[in-house]
Amino acid sequence: MERHIQAPINKEEAAVLRAGDYVYISGTIYTARDAAHKRMYETLAQGGELPLEMEDNVIYYMGPSPAREGRPIGSAGPTTASRMDKYAPDLLDLGLIGMIGKGKRSQAVKEAIVRNGAVYFAAIGGAGALLSKSITKSEVIAYDDLGTEAIRKLEVKDFPVIVVIDSEGTDLYETVMAQ
Questions:
Q1: Does pTM surpass 0.70?
Q2: Higher pLDDT, 1 or 32
Q3: Which of 49, 56, 84, 172 has its Cβ near the most Cβ atoms within 10 Å?
Q4: Own/partner pairs for 140-143, CB < 8 Å, 24+ apart?
Q5: Is the dihedral of CA 114, 117, 118, 122 positive or negative?
Q6: Which backbone phi and psi does 100 adopt, to 5 degrees?
Q7: Beta-ladder partners of 6
Q8: Do residues 132 and 76 touch, judged by C-beta distance below 8 A?
Q9: What angle do CA 66, 68, 69 make, to 5 degrees?
């Protein structure tokens, strides 16, 4: 099924998404990769405040290339989501509702997705230039010293993704392999 949604996304909206749905996201999402996740994890361990509110937000596992003239961002393809698996359950427990990446997730992440009524989306790997056309604004909001791995706030319009793991735990990768 094809769906158009507005981010941030609440649990009720996430609950209607099913593995295999084609989704076009508009609104605000955030980027964070390995180094940013590690820093957020360390901040939480020390009792500190995160640089963004997790509740109902979506994090895109992406490190952009420099923007061309007149564009808010360069190529913006997904990175392998499993590299964030160590950190994702804690962020989901804080209210993170969606993650965008590529590839499979660990059992612990799947359990946290179900426990929190969240969703994991995949963006098409190798299509970073095409995906960047759906990004209308980009600004660094935290960890500027990490360069391309800084946390960015993105405004997106019809950003194309596929639901891979839905809030009930159905995993598209597993169902396709079974077929």
A1: yes
A2: 32
A3: 84
A4: 141/30, 141/51, 141/52, 142/36, 142/51, 142/52, 143/35, 143/36, 143/39, 143/51
A5: positive
A6: -125, 130
A7: 26
A8: yes
A9: 130
